Amino acid sequence: MDSNDDTEDVSLFDAEEETTNRPRKSKIRHPVASFFHLFFRVSAVVVYLLCEFLSSSFIACMVTIILLLSCDFWAVKNVTGRLMVGLRWWNHIDEDGKSHWVFESRKESSQENKTVSEAESRIFWLGLIACPVLWVIFAFSALFSFRIKWLAVVIMGVVLQGANLYGYIRCKVGSRKNLTSMATSYLGKQFLRQNTGDDQTS
Predict the structure, then answer these.
(1) What letter would DSSP give residue 97?
(2) pTM of the model
(3) How is this protein positioned relative to the membrane (predicted)?
(4) Average pLDDT of each block of 10 consecutive residues along the chain (202 residues)?
(5) Considering only CA atoms, which of 15, 25, 2 is closest in space to residue 104?
(6) Residue 54 has what pLDDT?
(7) DSSP-H helix ranges across the chain
(8) For residues 66 and 105, what is the distance between their CA atoms, to the nearest angstrom?
(9) Element (H or E) spanning 7, and its range?
(10) Which residue of 61, 115, 150, 196 pairs with 142 in a disulfide if CB–CB is 3.0 to 4.6 A?
(11) Element (H, E) at 92
């Protein structure tokens, strides 16, 4: 993602805001979405680990893993994030040809009630975080064991699943500009506090 691109944080689907008065539930409200949120990414990991036993063809294993990763990227980015946690990120090009990254989150009601299920939220974030970590481990393993031909596959896993992780973290915590201002404010306070302490001791 180009750091020069404009970004904005907006509410997700104004037409769906009327549903935010429903109480937060612990049960799984979208079992199909929850299943496919884990199915593609877990299947890609399993195929990678067992590819030498499943097939002697490197090309067949590589194509299968890349297809699973691609299906996972599309499903998580466009479907499961919206349904399971009320988040979505996307990119659009304006009339001037300028790229805009948009990070959406469903608005919460004044009563702090959400349509998001706690169980679905745990499943979503666990799968979203754990699998990219595994692909990073696979990348280092392939590098240090000199399995050079697998580096392209594991890098694809890191990139696709890391992109979704980055996008949804941006949706969750807000704009990068807000994060920068918060960090600057915190460092400024720490600097002033340290100087004040030094003046008092002297």
Answers:
(1) S
(2) 0.69
(3) Multi-pass membrane protein
(4) 49 43 63 92 94 86 94 93 87 80 69 65 93 94 89 93 92 63 59 62 54
(5) 15
(6) 80
(7) 31-54, 58-75, 81-85, 118-144, 151-173, 176-201
(8) 29
(9) strand 6-11
(10) 150
(11) strand 87-93
Angle at CA of residue 161, ends 102 and 137, nearest 5°:
145
Evaluate whether 151 touches 142 at the Cβ level (below 8 Å): yes
Q: Which amino acid is at 127?
A: G
Q: Which amino acid is at 153?
A: V
Strand 99-105 and strand 6-11: pairing? parallel
**Beta-carbon count within 10 A of 123 CB:** 21
Supply the pLDDT for residue 199.
54
Q: Which of 109, 111, 110, 119 is nearest to 84 (CA)?
A: 119
pLDDT at 22: 46
> Which residues does 122 contact at the CB level (< 8 Å), separation at least 6?
none
Query: Tokens 């469903």 label which residue?
Result: 106
